[in-house]
Design goal:
2% of the residues lie in helices and 44% in strands. By secondary structure, the protein is mainly beta.
Length: 281
């Protein structure tokens, strides 16, 4: 099934578009399939997880576009996954095989059977909320499907936002200087790091990486300030990597600071009713 428009971006920041605009098509028949591995002991479920997957797919392209068939070459050789994107949803992975057993598939159309390898458990979609120290609320981001429709005034002690995911979400929190010992409180959990940020410096907390909290200079230099984070256990109310609850979340912060909150909604498959089909092939 070659019904959906997608893109693949490699580690050279080259983006390959699949669909009617490019003449390059990717078979999506099994890309949205998934299976859970269940571990049991004494007839009880101990854990449920998804293992790394090898997903069969196929690449079809016009005979005149043979130079596009090696989209997997660069990432596979350096061993770093690229990004497959579909309607705002994304998943990391590599195209690890390419077979030409049915190369001349149709007149003027070539085909390569491929395998997409991924260690990601979910397709994810990022939504960004901007909190600014100015008192006014702007309309930045309005009309974009993966940004929340409004910025929120960080001075408001009653500010709140909605996490659209039905499950707790991973996040990235970016706090901008100048500020000393910044904190953000979301649904009663305190995210605080006791550092001083100068103007144009920023603090980055990524809940997907429990090994570092980064202070980033205006020149991009990164310092791990993990030890400066205020740390409690998960669920204690001061866990620096506490995921964001689904639904409405009240939020407060250090007075007058600016920060961005990126939410990562994860699903086994992208929402089916948000797909865009093309029927050219």
């Amino acid at each position: 099934m070659f019904n959906y428009e997608m893109t693949y971006t490699n580690n050279r920041n080259q983006t390959f578009t699949f669909g009617k605009t490019s003449g390059l098509y990717l078979d999506t028949s099994q890309l949205f399939d998934y299976a859970w591995s269940v571990e049991t002991a004494q007839h009880q479920i101990v854990s449920v997880q998804r293992e790394p997957r090898e997903i069969p797919t196929a690449l079809c392209f016009l005979a005149a576009d043979k130079d596009k068939e090696n989209i997997n070459e660069f990432d596979t050789r350096i061993g770093k996954p690229g990004m497959l994107r579909f309607n705002g949803w994304e998943i990391h992975g590599l195209f690890i095989t390419s077979e030409a057993s049915d190369y001349e598939w149709k007149e003027g159309i070539m085909r390569r059977d491929m395998v997409f390898f991924t260690t990601d458990q979910d397709w994810t979609r990022k939504s960004t909320i901007h909190f600014r120290k100015q008192a006014n609320v702007t309309d930045e981001g309005m009309g974009y499907p993966h940004d929340f429709p409004h910025d929120y005034a960080a001075r408001s002690v009653s500010a709140s936002f909605v996490n659209p995911s039905p499950f707790p979400s991973e996040f990235v929190l970016r706090v901008y200087g100048p500020v000393a010992n910044p904190y953000v409180v979301i649904s009663g959990n305190v995210y605080q790091v006791n550092v001083h940020l100068a103007a144009d410096e920023q603090l980055l907390i990524d809940s997907r990486d429990h090994t570092q909290v980064l202070k980033i200079s205006p020149y991009g230099d990164k310092t791990n300030v993990f030890d400066a984070a205020v740390f409690g256990a998960p669920g204690s109310g001061s866990y620096i990597f506490e995921r964001i609850k689904p639904g409405a979340n009240p939020i407060t912060s250090s007075p007058g600071i600016s920060f961005d909150l990126e939410l990562y909604e994860g699903r086994s498959t992208p929402r089916w009713y948000e797909t865009r089909e093309n029927t050219d092939l």
